[in-house]
Every structure is written in structure tokens, then in C-alpha cells.
Design brief:
single chain, 451 residues, Rossmann fold, TIM Barrel, 2 domains, 6-stranded parallel beta sheet, 17 strands, 34% helix, 18% strand, disordered C terminus
Length: 451
């Protein structure tokens, strides 16, 4: 056993009704990011609650007198409830300080600090903030100089100030060795072949768009930054060499912001004969439409196999209200352009905008059916019930219409995207709006290996 002081990082269960549709166990990349400057000086342990049937006993065995702090990732929705349960249990067995981090705690830090079992909130990125806090706790130093922290002092909430964004090109490689990677080698509920391994990777952060429902304008201040293409290739080569990776899932929010960067990545994969398949999460349809067919063929030849895109709505009026830059015509065109490639298209939709009517809802369902008819490889991933998140302009609009702002972490946990909670629909419309969410169950295809 190591004599180093240890730090425990916890990824709570997601839970709730949405878990029935989310078959893929998410890799806790946020916790790996928080570890990059810790692993040399501390023993870092990552605890995924979903992997333990008796998680309380497993945690009891993990925490000891050398534990300096416990960090907990808290995502919007039911994961907040499990994060609460874990935090309460830890405080029942020891006095180890607890810090919550992630997008949601960043957006509602003062609400989080109302919970007596939470000592700190990490606001924004944690790569630099978290290690500085750990060091300050270890040396019993004043933490007021650690930028990016909310904490209580004599019942008063203190914020130490914003921290500058990290330089993504300077970050060390993620310590994937902290995880049992086979636990996350799943897709669509089915594991990959034992000779294959799929890992998640983030190569950029932020988004320059200003969609009224998105957290990005608040969290990343509409600022997009990315690792250079050479650095991305260097990281891929590292994963292939050290972990024999065969598939990479890029989880960037806006992968195609710089088309030239992506083109260079694709050409390097081919030139270096790096034989991997790769999936994309953040596909901006409007940006992708600027690429010609040769560009799309290049992505195909380089191994791109999945693109997940936010189509959002079949109503042009609602897209304009959302401040989406892409149009319905662009969605239809890119879907057709990709049908002759090996790239599977997944589409997200959002239901429940202010002033959305039955006619708008029908247009959205019609667009779903059009995409499926035009492209045999198209998939409707899901249609989320639009929910106002902290700091977004959608929340401001909802409050103007007497939306009752959640006041506690438990209240926020009930908002998970499966139910309309906004005040601008009657019971009849709410009943209708539940229907598109289950299109994934109807049109889900088992033919592709990438569900």
C-alpha cells in the first residue's frame, strides 16, 4: 500500500428513468481531468458507484486516515440524488472534506453549499483548481488564494474568484490507468469484441454558438478552444500504443468549429496508417455544410463512423427562437450527403419550447420520419423534453412565465429531460410532448454496431 496521502474521486450513479435509455456506461473523464496534476504526488482512487452492489461497504474500505479529500462529480438530473447519498454517507463515517465539481455545481454553487455535507464547490475547470485545493488542505494553508472555489466561512459563502481557462495543448495525457477500462468498453448495451477497446477523448472545449437552452454560454463564455491537430494525433498514437485502442469517442461539444483542424487530423490518421474507428458527439450541422463531398469522403476514409447532431426541431420558427444557426434544409441535405458513406447519423431533438404548438410538434415528427426515410443509416437518438438550466436564457424566459425555480439540490435532481416541467403547456400538450421522447425505442436499429 502506498504511503502517499490519497484523494478519492467519485462518479455517482446516473439513475432515474433515463438510465433505461442510456445503455452506455459513461467514462468519468471529468475525474480523470481532475487527476492529471495529482497522480505524481498523491495516490488517486476513482470510485464509480455503479460498479459496486454494496457501494457503502466498498467506500468504507476505501477511505482511511490518509484520505485528504473526496471529490464528487455531480451532473444535472438524478445523479444529483446519488451524489447526495454518497456525500451523506461519507460524512456519517468520517470528517473528510467533500468537494463537488462539474457543470451543474458550477452553475448553482450557492445552492450546492446549502447542503451541510458539502464543504467546497469547484467552479469551472478542475485541472489546476483541485490540486491547489488539495495541497492547501494537506499543508493546512488558507484556501482563499485558491482561485475557482466556493466555500463557507461562518455561515457566509465565499468565492475565491474565477480562474483562467487551461491551455488544452499543455495538459498531460489523462491517467486512464486509474480505471479498469473494460468496465467502459460498451456501446448500445453490448460490449465490443474483447480484442477491441473504445475510449472517450476530449480535444476541445466550449462552443461559440448561443443557443438559449445550452450551458455553454455560461460555463465556457461562448469561448471555443482546442488542442492542435498534431497534439490530437500524438494522443491517439499514445492510446493505440499503450492501450491498443481500436475506437475513440470524441465527446467535444463543437468538434467542427475549425474545419481545417479536423481535416489535418483525418489526413494524419491516413498518412500514419492509424487504423481506428472514431465517433463524434458535437457536430455543428451548419459548419459541416461548409465542407464539400471530398471532405466528407476524407472523414469516411480516415475512420469516422458516427456523427451525433442536434437537429432540435422541425419548426423553423422554433429554431430561430432557440438561436440555432442550422436550418431544417441543412439538416435534410447533410443527412442525404452522408447516406452513401459509412458514417451513421444520430439526431437529437428538443421538445417543449415556449409557444410550441401541436403544429410545431407535428413538423418535428415529420422531420424525424424524413431523415429516417432519406438515409437508411440515420437514427433518432432521442427527443429530450427541454428543461431550463441555471444561467441560461431559457430559464430567464421560464421565470417570466411563473416557472418555479428549484431551490435545493433535490429539486434540481428531478429535472432530467424526460418530462416537461415548464409552465407554458397545458395537460393536453404535456401528454403529447412525452411521445417523441420514445422514438428512440421505436426506430432504434440493431443492425449497426454503434447504437
Amino acid at each position: 500500500m502506498s504511503n502517499k496521502p490519497n484523494v478519492i474521486l467519485i462518479y455517482p450513479k446516473i439513475g432515474g428513468p433515463f438510465i433505461n435509455l442510456r445503455k452506455k456506461r459513461p467514462m468519468p473523464l471529468g475525474l480523470l481531468n481532475a487527476s492529471v496534476y495529482l497522480v505524481d504526488d498523491y495516490e488517486v482512487k476513482i470510485f464509480d458507484q455503479s460498479l459496486h452492489s454494496n457501494w457503502k461497504q466498498a467506500l468504507r474500505n476505501l477511505i482511511n486516515s490518509n484520505t485528504l479529500i473526496v471529490g464528487i462529480h455531480a451532473m444535472a438530473g438524478y445523479q444529483l440524488l446519488h451524489a447526495q447519498d454518497v456525500s451523506k454517507f461519507i460524512k456519517s463515517i468520517c470528517s473528510t472534506p467533500i468537494i463537488w465539481g462539474g457543470v451543474h455545481p458550477t452553475l448553482i454553487p450557492e445552492t450546492v453549499l446549502k447542503e451541510p455535507f458539502i464543504d467546497y464547490v469547484c467552479v469551472g475547470e478542475g485541472e489546476r483548481t483541485f490540486p491547489e485545493l488539495v495541497k492547501a488542505i494537506q499543508l493546512k494553508q488558507d484556501i482563499s488564494s485558491v482561485k475557482g472555489i466556493y466555500y463557507r466561512n461562518n455561515s457566509k459563502n465565499i468565492f475565491t474568484g474565477d480562474r483562467e481557462f487551461v491551455d488544452l495543448n499543455q495538459l498531460p495525457e489523462l491517467p486512464y490507468h486509474l480505471l479498469n477500462l473494460s468496465d467502459y468498453n460498451v456501446s448500445g448495451g453490448a460490449r465490443f469484441d474483447e480484442k477491441e477497446l473504445k475510449l472517450s477523448m476530449e480535444t476541445s472545449r466550449g462552443c461559440a454558438n448561443d443557443c438559449i437552452f445550452c450551458y455553454n454560454p455560461v460555463f465556457n463564455k461562448r469561448h471555443w478552444r482546442a488542442q492542435d491537430a498534431d497534439r490530437v494525433i500524438e494522443r491517439i498514437e499514445f492510446l493505440v500504443k499503450n492501450y491498443h485502442v481500436t475506437h475513440i469517442d470524441f465527446i467535444d461539444d463543437a468538434f467542427f468549429t475549425d474545419l481545417g483542424r479536423v481535416e489535418k487530423i483525418a489526413k494524419s490518421l491516413i498518412a500514419k496508417k492509424i487504423n481506428i474507428k472514431w465517433f463524434l458527439q458535437g457536430v455543428d450541422i451548419q459548419k459541416l455544410m461548409q465542407a464539400d463531398d471530398a471532405y466528407l469522403d476524407l472523414l469516411d476514409k480516415a475512420g469516422c463512423r458516427v456523427m451525433r447532431m442536434g437537429a432540435e426541431s422541425g419548426s423553423a420558427r422554433l429554431l430561430e427562437q432557440m438561436q440555432k444557426k442550422s436550418t431544417i434544409d441543412q439538416v435534410i441535405k447533410i443527412n442525404k450527403r452522408l447516406r452513401d458513406t459509412n458514417i451513421v447519423c444520430y439526431y437529437y431533438f428538443t421538445i417543449g419550447m415556449p409557444q410550441e404548438t401541436e403544429a410545431d410538434l407535428k413538423k418535428t415528427v415529420d422531420l424525424m420520419l424524413t431523415l429516417l426515410a432519406d438515409n437508411p443509416q440515420a437514427r433518432i437518438l432521442s427527443a429530450f423534453c427541454l428543461t431550463p438550466q441555471p444561467g441560461t436564457r431559457l430559464l430567464e424566459e421560464a421565470q417570466k412565465q411563473d416557472f418555479s425555480l428549484p431551490k435545493t439540490v433535490s429539486d434540481w435532481a428531478k429535472i432530467d429531460g424526460t418530462t416537461i416541467i415548464t409552465p407554458w403547456f397545458d395537460k393536453k400538450m404535456k401528454k403529447k410532448i412525452k411521445f417523441p421522447f420514445f422514438y428512440k425505442l421505436v426506430y432504434r436499429s440493431e443492425k449497426s454496431g454503434y447504437n
